[in-house]
Design goal:
heterodimer; A: mainly beta; five-stranded mixed β-sheet; 2 helices; 43 strands; B: mainly beta; two-stranded antiparallel sheet; elongated
């Protein structure tokens, strides 16, 4: 095209104009139109020209999740199937004679997947197995069952959504569900026998006892050669195999066990037991005695039954560090020292016990007598003299430390130590209590010169009076 | 700048001499450049993608958007000139 104007100074205008035929596209349509097509649907596209006449030989190129290169037939139509869901881009062209190209898009929905649910999930041989398709408002689903021997049969859910069959063989059953417009799905279920674990009366689940585990099948028949594992709370495992009676025995050494029984073609069984822990109790003939009062009897019993039970008895002196160990159900303890004592009773597989008792020390008596020039200190206990008692005397001139003799006596020379206050301490650890006595000594001989002066004064008075 | 008048579209050589003052630090300048002079048509074609046997409308305006009377429109294809016309004409 050329546009010109001779005057007024216009420049010439030249532009090519391209003229082609027009394409009118009907589609892409599926049988669900106006709804979007679903994967697997057949799609139709019709191509017409500007006069609504079919265009033969137009190229239809489909791109996206899948590709198709097609040409329209004499009726201007094309048919194809879409298998993949997602956005498809369609390019429609024809070059001879020239047509303006057209692009279209088509969204293909995915087919819903059939959801299979089998009940029970772990079927036992002989159980009726119900297969249910859980998609909403679904019916007429074909269910194909393949048994462990490889034989298949097909059932239909009819107007409902479930079928039921009985399991006659051990092993894997394959369940397949098919329906138009849905994606098929499969489910495998395994038909097994059942294992039961019997552990006997709970009263016998006691630490240190033997535990007999019996393994039975679903009909309560004993299962031989089942592998039984018991695992304690620390993860330590013991494994045993059942005998012809379905029994296996273990010793209980832990406070908690997880038990499992396994065998091929059987569903693994699990159980848990918590063995009782017996407790010890201590019994003392007394909780308090004096060192000179003799012995204490200590006995160990089972807490719940009260039956004597041999256990390790440990006696510890708090202050003296005395430690005695003996394994017995009872012992007589004669303390050598006064102290606070702790007692422990322990035994394997038993809860321990502890107690305490006190052995008190003996009081010491201090008597003091003035004997001429000596202070006689006598140490006694319960009225009897006590030998080898450390006696500390604080005198006016210093300090004396002596031990009592056979008669419990210590003597102090008053001439040497002088008059004044004497304080006497007596102690004999650890069994005798420390005692203290104070004495005030005023010695007579200290005043002889006063008597002499008095006599002189008297004589002087008599002489004065005479003369 | 002095306006330059013209009476036809074309490319003209324009010679200019720029004379500096006496005290200018540089020399005088001389310029000789080709300049395109003329008005442009503003042409609208509807539709842009022409279809066989369908009318195509061509509107011609000045580059200021004013109607241009008596502009000559020639449509030429492989067979020669198919149309010559004025402001508004129908296809043939």
């Amino acid at each position: 095209m050329v546009v010109t104007k001779e005057d007024e100074g216009y420049c010439n205008y030249t532009k090519p104009i391209e003229v082609r035929h027009n394409l009118t596209i009907r589609g892409p349509y599926s049988g669900r139109h106006p709804d979007d097509p679903v994967a697997g649907d057949e799609i139709v596209i019709r191509v017409l020209d500007e006069e609504n006449e079919p265009v033969h030989g137009a190229s239809i190129n489909v791109r996206g999740p899948e590709e198709r290169y097609l040409n329209t037939d004499r009726g201007g139509g094309v048919l194809f199937f879409v298998d993949e869901p997602g956005e498809h881009y369609i390019e429609i062209t024809k070059t001879v004679p020239p047509y303006w190209g057209v692009n279209k898009t088509m969204y293909v929905l995915a087919k819903p997947v059939l959801v299979i649910f089998a009940s029970p999930e772990k079927p036992i041989l002989g159980d009726d197995i119900t297969v249910k398709i859980t998609n909403e408002n679904i019916s007429d689903v074909n269910i194909t069952l393949t048994n462990p021997n490889g034989f298949s049969m097909t059932l239909t859910t009819g107007r409902g959504s479930e079928v039921t069959f009985d399991s006659k063989l051990l092993g894997k059953y394959i369940i397949r569900a098919d329906k138009d417009d849905y994606t098929s799905s499969t489910l495998e279920i395994e038909v097994n026998n059942l294992l039961k674990i019997l552990t006997g009366d709970e009263e016998n689940h006691v630490m240190g006892n033997n535990l007999t585990i019996t393994v039975l099948d679903q009909d309560d028949y004993p299962v031989p050669n089942a592998v039984v594992t018991i695992k304690d709370s620390e993860g330590k495992e013991e494994v045993g195999t059942t005998d012809h009676k379905g029994e296996v025995e273990f010793i209980l050494n832990s406070k908690k066990y997880k038990i499992s029984a396994e065998k091929k073609d059987f569903i693994k069984a699990e159980a848990e037991i918590t063995p009782l822990v017996k407790k010890l109790s201590l019994s003392l003939s007394t909780k308090k005695l004096r060192i000179d009062e003799g012995s204490i009897y200590i006995s160990v019993k089972e807490d719940d039954t009260g039956a004597p039970v041999p256990a390790k008895i440990t006696i510890e002196g708090e202050r003296t560090g005395v430690e005695i160990e003996e394994t017995s159900s009872g012992l007589t303890f004669t303390p050598e020292f006064s102290d606070n004592y702790r007692i422990f009773a322990t035994k394997e597989n038993y809860g321990g016990a502890k107690d305490s008792f006190v052995v008190e020390s003996v009081p010491i008596g201090i008597d003091t007598v003035l004997d001429k020039k000596e202070l006689v200190i006598k140490i006694t206990t319960s009225g009897k003299p006590l030998q080898a008692v450390d006696v500390s005397i604080k005198t006016p001139k210093g300090k004396i430390i002596e031990s009592t003799d056979m008669e419990g006596i210590v003597r102090v020379n008053l001439d040497e130590e002088g008059k004044g206050r004497y304080t006497v301490f007596a102690s004999k650890p650890p069994n005798y209590e420390r005692s203290e006595v104070g004495v005030e000594i005023i010695r007579n001989q200290e005043y002889w010169w006063m008597w002499l002066i008095l006599i002189i004064i008297l004589i002087s008075l008599i002489v004065v009076w005479r003369f | 700048m002095m306006p330059i008048s013209h009476d036809a579209c074309g490319i003209y050589n324009v010679w200019a001499k720029i004379v500096m003052n006496n005290n200018a630090p540089y020399h005088d300048w001389e310029v000789n450049v080709p300049v395109k002079i003329g008005k442009n048509f503003l042409v609208t074609i509807t539709p842009e993608k022409g279809v066989i046997n369908k009318p195509v409308q061509v509107d011609v305006k000045s580059d200021l958007g004013l109607e241009v009377e008596y502009a000559r429109i020639e449509i030429i294809n492989i067979y020669g000139k198919q149309y010559k016309g004025g402001t508004v004409r129908e296809n043939f």
